[in-house]
Inverse folding.
């Protein structure tokens, strides 16, 4: 596992001791996505900040594409085969939830897939499964990096 992701896991507080798994399973998938969005954002920001000090605008720029619904939708589709049945179930619950809004720069389908990924991240975080959460974040980032390299190769540019 990438060291920066391992270190990001260590800075996240875990609520697994406060909320039982039974309680967490009763939470709305949109509630899970709410916390999952924050957890994923914190992972990404931690990784970016660990790469070095920079102006806030540059930090935001480095993070923004990774936390967009369109990118998250592609990530979950790329790693779906790596999920356990339980994880797929949580993802589907999040994907199928009827959100009252949607992302500005994504289709409804992309937004729903991203919501499913965030719900999965929220579930793993709240159940204290931070090692598995870190594994999935790493898989997502590797998938994203591979897609960027492919796109760069097709356009004649370098990837990440």
């Amino acid at each position: 596992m990438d060291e920066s992701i391992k270190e990001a896991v260590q800075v996240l507080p875990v609520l697994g001791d406060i909320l039982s798994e039974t309680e967490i399973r009763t939470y709305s998938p949109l509630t899970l996505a709410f916390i999952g969005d924050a957890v994923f954002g914190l992972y990404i920001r931690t990784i970016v900040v660990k790469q070095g000090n920079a102006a806030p605008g540059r930090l935001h720029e480095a993070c923004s594409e990774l936390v967009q619904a369109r990118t998250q939708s592609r990530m979950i589709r790329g790693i779906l085969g790596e999920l356990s049945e339980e994880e797929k179930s949580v993802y589907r619950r999040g994907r199928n939830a009827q959100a009252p809004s949607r992302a500005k720069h994504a289709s409804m389908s992309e937004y729903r897939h991203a919501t499913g990924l965030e719900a999965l991240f929220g579930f793993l975080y709240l159940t204290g499964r931070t090692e598995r959460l870190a594994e999935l974040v790493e898989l997502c980032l590797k998938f994203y990096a591979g897609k960027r390299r492919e796109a760069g190769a097709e356009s004649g540019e370098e990837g990440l």
